[in-house]
Amino acid sequence: MPKWRRSHVAAASAVAASAVVIARVILQRSKCSRRKPTSQHLNEQGDATLTEYTSRRKRTKLKELIKLLFSSLSSPTSQRALALALLCGINTGLSDRTAQLQGLIFKSVYTQNRSKFIRQMLESALLQFSTSFLNTTIKNYVDQLALNCRDKLYRHIHELYFSGMNYYKLAFVDKRVSSPEEVICNDIPALTSGLAAIYNDILKALFDGAFFTYRLAQLTSPGWSAVTWAYVITALFVVRSISPNFAKLFKKRSALSEVFRQAVARVVVHSESIAALNGDDREHYLVTDSFRNLQKHVRRMTGTQWWFGMIEDFVTKYAASTMAMIVILGPFFGGNLRTDYTPEGNATTLATMRYVTSVIINQLTAIGGLARCVRKVISLHGHVQRVGSMRDALLDIREHTDEEMQFLDGNAIAFDGVEVVTPNGHSLVSDLSFLVKPGQNLLITGPNGAGKSSIFRCLGALWSVKKGSITRPGGSGQGLHDKVFYLPQKPYNVVGDLRDQIMYPVTSELVKEQLTDSSLRNLLTLVELDYLFDQNQDSNVNWEDKLSLGETQRLAMARLLYHRPVFAILDECTSAVSHAMERRLYRLCEEHKITCITISHRPALIALHDMRLELCGNGRYNFELLHRHKETDALSDAQINDMDQSALESISSSSSSLSITDEATVEELDPSQHSWLSNSDESDHVGHNPLNSPLSLVKRSKKSNRFARLMRLFRFLIPKLTGTAGKMLSGLGIVVILRVFLTDRIARLNGETVRLLLLDDLPAFKRLVGVSLVQCMASAILAPTLVFLTRSLSMHWQEKLQTHLSMRANLFFRRKAFYKAIHIHPDVKNIEQRLTDDIEKLCVELANTFPDVIKPIADLSWFSFQSVRLIGLRRTVFLYSYVLLGLGVLRSITPNFEVLVKKSAALEGSFKYIQRRLRTHGESIAFFGGNEKEGAIAMSAFQDVVTHTQSKLTKQWSYGIADNFVVKQLPTIVTWTLSLLYAQQVSSTAAYTQNVNDGGQLGFDLRFVASAISHIFIASGEMLQLYKRWQELGGFAHRVTEMEDLLLALDQSTIDEEGDGFVQEGKAIEFAHADIVTPTGCTLVRDLSIDIPRGEALLITGPNTSGKSSLFRVLGGLWPLRKGTIVKPGGQHATTVKELFLVPQRPYCASGCLAEQITYPEQANLNDSRVVARLEDLLESVNLSYLVERQGGWRAVDIWENVLSLGEQQRLGMARLFYHQPLYGVLDQCTDAVSVDVEEKLYQEAEKLGITIITISQRAALTSHHTKELQLLGISAAWKIKSTHQ
């Protein structure tokens, strides 16, 4: 067989054998790491039916995801992948030609052949520019492929997620995926980026491995090529046998990271409730504990990666150079590659040896890279499982939905023998049958948890119905937005303009244009919200932060009147509006022929309905016909018409003066975002704005330069060199210096290799192989140690920053700064992302930057000394002149990476916020049928991320070509030029005219000079790269320091300094000439003076936005007292839950077990029988004793806001009040979702426990439980007090 054919066969056989072995290893490791989680996954299904169904279904694995991403050759991902394969193939050929040319150039320098040297330099310049263009383009294609894969995978998940009501069922019914937003925003990007990088690594390894195996077999013999493959395969099995279970480690890290992010997110989302309940310490503990658990695991994982990395690097990476020397032994020492021993022959041998060495190292590096892909694939297992689990769940839900009962089409709503069952199998109502025709209003009553809202979850297809039939207008379909419209107690507001709120879930712009401004104003006027039209024309408003609950409910009424459905389901949707507005809604519905189906506990609404369905709570129900009292209706309509007319006159006459409308929407969260508040009358603004002091510091931080921000961070992170960070930096410096020393020894070893080869000294060369092996071991120890110290330093800094901001120093939680930072100073956006992702990225990048600074400085110092010694000062100065010129060129064309990084972080934060809102408000969106609208919003946010990322990649690509050429490629020409000048300096004649010893020494010197100059250029290139790193660090540093500035400012500006009022300690609550003023300066209540002695309950009433809840914010210390005096138990900062306790309308459901829902913010000691007995008594007092058995015991943990009905949450909130038994309890409309008899019982229990109640409500029926009533009039900040006995 011819030699070339033998080499082809050997190369092909080696590649095929290795590919089979490595593929088998990947599959075996994937199966082993996947086996246990799969069984756990199947045991943790949320719904029994879905569990049985999914157990028969094939789970999504990496192979399925790859098929999805590369489904057809015409897809952008496939085309990009094919193009990347072509580029990698070209790059392999280019690398081979470059290696050949380097050997020829070395020969020309050695022989001082200037004519050949010039021609070769021209070819080298062309190759180097091509290499720069190709390498940068490959990197760009890898990033673009990752982006294309992310785009395709997200669109696939997006389509499933928004198909029907899958987003609701995934979170509230199936419950397999606890945080879909984490999977979408974190796991999908990490998975696609990892896959693109691994694909590129595999391509490069396959092309390089196959080609250089062929070249080695061609140059030497197939035997030597087989030796290298045998070594790598053996090394692979060695590494595999000792490899830890990285899949398990990475999976646990992802889970712990999710717990930490969720802990921070809960504080951000529920900040007002937490602040009002004094839950700072409890939430601080949860955040701290989750972070420490994460850090503990990461430290253990880093230690595991350290010792394993040393072994893996030695076996698969550094030993490759020693293997190259071993392979050289045969062909060059008496082999076919050793030419004659003449000086010319020596020059040819040196050129061949340089090329063969490059071939061997490229081959071994490629094979080792292919082997290392095994660990990279395993590291993605956690992301694959989480993304696959979400996809599986969505596919299961979609297929399961197709099997569900189909609705019957009709002009009425009818239930016939329907059994209402929760997703976990608990039966609420059995054999439910009723009929509601148009024009017949139905009232549904019953105790909490009896299934009132659940009936309409079945009607809206949110829950599946296994028994019976349902008839509704439109028949089968998703949601209730067409002919059946749903108004929940807390309506959902989409991010957008006013027109979006009214027309939701309409998405068509043409349809939106049909709603004229005058029609929009008329709709808002009907619900007394026309001031919103006049005062806010923004197109992208977060209305949840703008409007009070009452305004939100009235805006939902306007939405109902716009859509004019046949049926309207009113689920406690008027709890926060006045009785006049409530009766107006029913009258308007009757005028527009809208049939109302009302869920309520209020007997007063009986007169407005024709039928009543009463659920008994034990699966049974009663249905009865009612008779409206027409005279009552007529009287009510007359009264309402009078109120409508007076309201319209008031609105038209007060457009230029202060009224309730001037203060609207300043009562609730985030009032500082009201751009239209500045138009209010000056008389209602106080002179001093409390925002000025904190925000002035934040604005100054925005203006501070990058250097000042980074220096400030350095001073904080490295307070002294003898500290932990200083010692770690010293260790890093020592390791870097040792690596520089080792690099010098390796450079000398390379030169010695040349010298011994020319001398044909085989024994000395064999000893040199042993030296090389020792150096490889040292490199294998130092490199992972450097990574270990860098990661440890990063974790130390993360812990230090977290301790400073949210842990021990407690800036985020101190004095309720988290509430103020989110709601009072909202200029600093994405607090959650800054505390989690931004801090992590900043510390990682900062820690990686330190060795990148120390190493080039050490390299430049040492090798510059060697350069001056060998080539002289003048040529070294010439070398540095090039470096400075390159720095100037790159500086002039560098994009503003700081701005790019900040914008990327902001867009990713917005995208994640939209995904989190979808999960939080999933039920309301599902009832409205807002799939298409919310899907469009989410896709628009994602498209913004994609567009910006593409723009950033384009800028990085254009800059990267110049950067790679100037920093990495062009210096090669300078290196060879200086090497030629050195050769001429040593001898004016060619090297081959010298004797063997002198020629060998010249070869040694040339190799060492080339290495020294190369290291100078590499170090200079690393220094040039620092400018880009500096900019990117500035982006993260800006976001973190901006947040720190705000928290420090809030910590320094105490409530005393913010306001002119005084808060004093006393046994009772007293307001003396106090002004209730929003943080933006709008006065809601002026000159309030009232005593609230112990035992004398107070009822606070008034229209929406009159300042009822704001009164508590000032009393609870959330807002500063601007004027006057407040006396309260505990005084300024010492008020505890034992003195003043708030029960909000939607109580905060804490993270923890069932018992901790009562004891919050304290932890529950369930080991104490007395505590358990007391908790049982408390549940009995609020009629919730069944919860313990239903939920599986006191220690049961769940997402309680999704599990409990609003009525159950409110009664748990009252149980929490009774548990703490404070002196004063503030009830902010917290009994609107409970029945009248239960409400009566709750007030009696509070009175029995000696709790003085302060109730905020619209309900006049509560006056019997109070001594006095404080009426906030909502006009000119006026108020009045009257006795409830009048």
What is the gist of this entry?
Helix content is 64%, strand content 9%.
Description:
With 1286 residues, this protein is of the alpha/beta class. The protein has 42 helices and 20 strands. The strands form 4 sheets. It has a 6-stranded mixed beta sheet with strand order 6-7-8-4-9-10, sandwiched between helices. It has a 6-stranded mixed beta sheet with strand order 16-17-18-14-19-20, sandwiched between helices. Strands 1-5-2-3 form a 4-stranded mixed beta sheet. It is elongated, with a radius of gyration of 37 Å. Residues 1-16, 18-23, 25-56 and 630-698 have low confidence and may be disordered.
Reconstruct the topology from this structure:
Elements: H1 3-43, H2 48-54, H3 62-69, H4 76-111, H5 114-161, H6 166-174, H7 180-219, H8 222-242, H9 246-269, H10 271-276, H11 280-332, H12 343-379, H13 381-402, E1 408-409, E2 413-421, E3 427-436, E4 442-445, H14 452-459, E5 469-472, E6 484-487, H15 498-503, H16 509-513, H17 517-526, H18 530-535, H19 543-546, H20 549-563, E7 567-571, H21 579-591, E8 595-599, E9 611-615, E10 621-625, H22 630-653, H23 692-703, H24 706-717, H25 724-759, H26 762-806, H27 817-824, H28 831-871, H29 873-893, H30 897-920, H31 922-928, H32 931-969, H33 971-986, H34 996-1052, H35 1055-1058, E11 1062-1065, E12 1069-1077, E13 1083-1092, E14 1098-1101, H36 1108-1115, E15 1123-1128, E16 1140-1143, H37 1156-1159, H38 1169-1181, H39 1186-1191, H40 1200-1203, H41 1206-1220, E17 1224-1228, H42 1236-1248, E18 1252-1256, E19 1268-1272, E20 1279-1283
Parallel strand pairs: 1-5, 4-8, 4-9, 6-7, 7-8, 11-15, 14-18, 14-19, 16-17, 17-18
Antiparallel strand pairs: 2-3, 2-5, 9-10, 12-13, 12-15, 19-20
Helix pairs in contact: 1-7, 1-8, 1-12, 4-5, 4-7, 4-12, 4-33, 5-7, 5-32, 6-13, 6-31, 7-8, 7-12, 7-13, 7-30, 8-11, 8-12, 9-11, 9-28, 11-12, 11-26, 21-22, 23-34, 24-34, 25-26, 25-28, 25-34, 26-28, 27-34, 28-29, 28-34, 29-32, 29-34, 30-32, 30-34, 32-34, 33-34, 38-41
